[in-house]
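Entry for the shared binder. Reason: the reviewer on the internal report wants the predicted structure included alongside the sequence.
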Amino acid sequence: MTPAPPDASPDEQTTATPVIAIRGLYKAYGALEVIKGVDVTAMPGQVIALIGSSGSGKSTLLRCCNLLEDSQQGEIEFDGEPVRWRGTGAARQPGDRAQVARIRTNLSMVFQSFNLWSHMTVLQNVMEAPLTVLKQPRAEVEARARALLDKVGIGDKADVYPAQMSGGQQQRAAIARALCMEPRALLFDEPTSALDPELEQEVIRVIKALAGEGRTMLIVTHDMHLAADVADHVIFLHQGRIEEEGPPARVFGAPRSARLRQFLRVVEDVPEVEAATAESAGPRLTGPSAIDKKKRQSTTQQGDRP
């Protein structure tokens, strides 16, 4: 089935094959249940934000999606192709390693701690996987890598080493590395949580630009503004289950779940959004003033610092 473009009509979208489809996923570490029957579907061009308190299962869900963690139950499909399993329960693992490798090349992950190779230059970091995994021609890969470094605003850092860069620059290099694989979807695991507020904005600008291009993305984040600004769909996880989900306007503007309302009350900077279903969805939570929000948008729109 041919995927519908991101700007397709609702009828066209319903006939598209999901890029990622997770059904009834269960994951435990011994007696500790981390994911308890979660369903997630990411359509072509859709951006899904996963929010929730620490320990709610967000990052584990992302790692299960990319098959970095084995799950005990449930199904995972990539572009309509189900993962083939062998064994059951705690002994379950992917049964086709070639399939796993193929899926991972199409699901690029950006980690909280950057995970750049310290002994390689930024350009070498970005080029490594396409050269060694995809076996693509060096000249083609280098041209694409340099273009991507320009795209994320660090083209002048191609020949420096990660230790010579700020955290924001390193994370943008990690995003360029993920993009160089030309993946079907991007998975972000807390991409800004290790950064101070100024450096965080450098990365947020890049993620917003990628969302504007219609890329399929799953983003685990504690930044509620990032979730509200870039996501089409927000999922709130609590104790390994989906407590609530929906469009950002409803999730942030008129949360139905008492647990989500409690979570948003302790968040210092809740996005101010218009809730389309506020009358039927429960109490409305207000965020920062319009002036504060305009200041934040102005900061986000400024160019990168030298």
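Summary line for the report: The first helix runs from residue 10 to 14.
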